[in-house]
Each structure stands twice: as structure tokens, then as C-alpha cells.
Amino acid sequence: MGSGIPPEPTLRRIPKVCLVDDPRAFLLLKPDCLRLKLSGSVERAIIRAGLRIVCRHRVTVSPADVRHLWPEYDDAGHPLALAFLDRYLTGEPSEVLHLYGQDAFEAARRVKREVRSRHAEGPFANVVHGAERRGEMARQAGHLLGRCDVCAEPFHSDEPPLNPARPPGRDFREDADLAALVDELWPLVQGVPADPGPVRLEGGDTGQAVYLGSDREQTLDSTVTALWHALPGVELRHAVLLALHSGWSGGTPIAVGGRRALDDCLRTLHTHGVRACGKGVT
Ligand SMILES: [Zn+2]
Questions:
Q1: Which listed residue, of 14, 27, 31, 146, carries a Cα 20 to 30 Å from 155's Cα?
Q2: What sign for the dihedral angle of Cα 124, 125, 126, 130?
Q3: What InterPro entries does its record include (predicted)?
């Protein structure tokens, strides 16, 4: 946990009763941020937001860290999301920036959004992580900063530390080597994820397709699981690409075929809680 910056003496004098307006925040510069040499751009956005960088930590995130930082995903219910996060975040250096300033939580969120709007290139190329909730910020800061003497004072929040559970899916570890699958798909999901084209279901072509849109209530795992059931015989790689492409495009044709097959497909998606779907002309 090296740091070229002197300790920030005021950090230790923050009264512990200050539950909401903690003047501290952090941002995680992901491996792609460092690889693409975007740190300077991020740091200028931090300064524009009125924040100071009080400590820097080079870290190499491990699979265990991923599971500590995002416990709303677990290996049995979210093996796909975790396989992609492992591929994206682990094994290469990241950097944690400990930030200080007025309303640091909100300011750091604004920095994250500004940086992503400028540099993000796809679902696994969004450059920075920052917490969306104060409770999440406090919990993740404890994990990322707790080993540094300067930064170890716990963040304070009056919010629950855990994010709400996210919808799980099938345990696809039974069906495929997910690390190998992610390695194979990785080049196809940089930038806008590749569109693998709709699955052809039974029956003559009606000139219609079932479309899948973006649904933030779902996860990659819950969406792929719904597709697994709604598109009989679909290959896992095909379902993953359909899920990722629809999440980015907002409307991807996932199935063509006869009227009955398309209706069955839609009904199965609804049964699995997918609402952002419907029929349209091809
Ligand atoms: Zn530190």
C-alpha cells in the first residue's frame, strides 16, 4: 500500500458522530483505466469536483476481493456475472484513490459518471468504480482502505452496508467451463457487445421477432437463465451474447419463427420475470 502523498492529518480528527456527511470517499480505477492511461483524466475530474486525493493504493484485485466488494452476487446464483467480473478486474493492477472534500460521496459519484460518459466503451470497460450508496461506500472502503494506516479509520454511514440481493439464475457451472467461455467471448464484448443474431424457433417465418430490451432489475445470470428456457436448445455463448447485446442496445431481436413459438418464447420470458420484451417486425 505505497503512497507518494503525505498523510492527511485532518482525517483522524473526524468526529465519529458524523454519520452522513463523511467528507471521505473513494474511487477504484479499474485495470482498463490504468492500461489506457486515463488516470490523469480521472484526477482532473476529481479536482474539478472539489475533491483532494489524500492517499493512493495500488492493488491487484483477487477473486476473493470481487466477492467481498459485491456480495450481492454469489457463485451459485451469479456464476456468469462473477466470471466476467473476475476476467475484467482480477490479475492486473488497479488503483484506489482515497478522496476528501465537501459532500465527498456525491462528488465522487459525479466524477464516476463524468468519467464513464467520456471513456466507457461497454459493460466490461467502464474504467472506474464508485459506490452508488453510502452504505456500500463505507463497506467497500473498509475492505479496500483498511490495511493502510492513513486510511484505516472506518467510513461512517447510517445506511445498511449491503446492497439488496440481485436476482439469481441457473448455476451454469454445471453446463460449461465459465472461465473458458468468458475468455472466448471477451473480444466480442469489448465496446458494444456483438449481436449474435436471433435464434430460429419452430414454424414458418412470420416476419416478426421477439425483442429483448434493457432491464436493470435483472442480472446477466437471471436474463441468460430466462433465455435458456425461452429459446429451447440455445447455446450458452449465444444466450450470453444476446443478454449482453440487449442490455446495451435497448432492443435486440432474440427469436424468429412461427407465431406459436414466438408466443411461447414471450410467455416463458414473462414467467422468469423479464418484462422488457415484446414482439415486433423484423
Ligand atoms: Zn491510504
A1: 31
A2: positive
A3: NDK-like_dom_sf
